Automatic annotation (TrEMBL):
Keyword Lyase carried by entry: no
Entry-linked InterPro entries: CBS_dom, CBS_dom_sf, Diverse_CBS-Domain
A Pfam family it matches: CBS
Organismal lineage: Bacteria, Pseudomonadati, Aquificota, Aquificia, Aquificales
Protein name stated in the entry: CBS domain-containing protein
Organism in which the protein naturally occurs: Persephonella hydrogeniphila
UniProt keyword terms in alphabetical order: CBS domain
Length: 129
């Protein structure tokens, strides 16, 4: 099975200049645990902001995140993979880099996102057949 077969195509994005509070609002509204940070220009890289990165910022700033933007705490460039590879390689990347999500990129354009949960759910479907 390929990454493109199970990836989520609808992803939530946010501007790198948005505040952390704005990011939290979007995450709550969309019921997601991660946001893709938009590129600032065509040759830029995508980033990612997660609950974990927000919690690290809260801890580092001793709770005062008023002046922080998404850009300040996002992981950039986000780790990415092609949609044309087998999901076992996405799983291997997640294990090797200790991450839960990988962006799916083709020609420096965002195509989707794949998570550990997506891979596990595909395995459940496979064994249920």
């Amino acid at each position: 099975m390929l990454v493109k077969d199970i990836m989520k195509r609808e992803v939530c994005t946010i501007s790198p200049m948005a505040s952390i509070k704005d990011a939290l609002k979007v995450m709550k509204e969309k019921d997601v645990k991660a946001l893709i940070v938009d590129k600032q220009h065509p040759h830029d890289a995508y980033g990612i902001i997660t609950y974990t990165s927000i919690l690290k910022a809260v801890y580092a700033e001793e709770g005062d995140i008023e002046l922080l933007n998404v850009y300040d705490i996002a992981v950039k460039p986000a780790i990415s993979i092609s949609g044309e590879v087998d999901i076992k390689y996405a799983a291997r990347m997640m294990v090797n880099f200790n991450i839960k999500r990988v962006l799916v990129i083709e020609n420096n354009q965002l195509q989707g996102i794949i998570s550990m949960t997506d891979i596990i759910e595909s395995l459940f479907r496979e064994i249920g057949e």
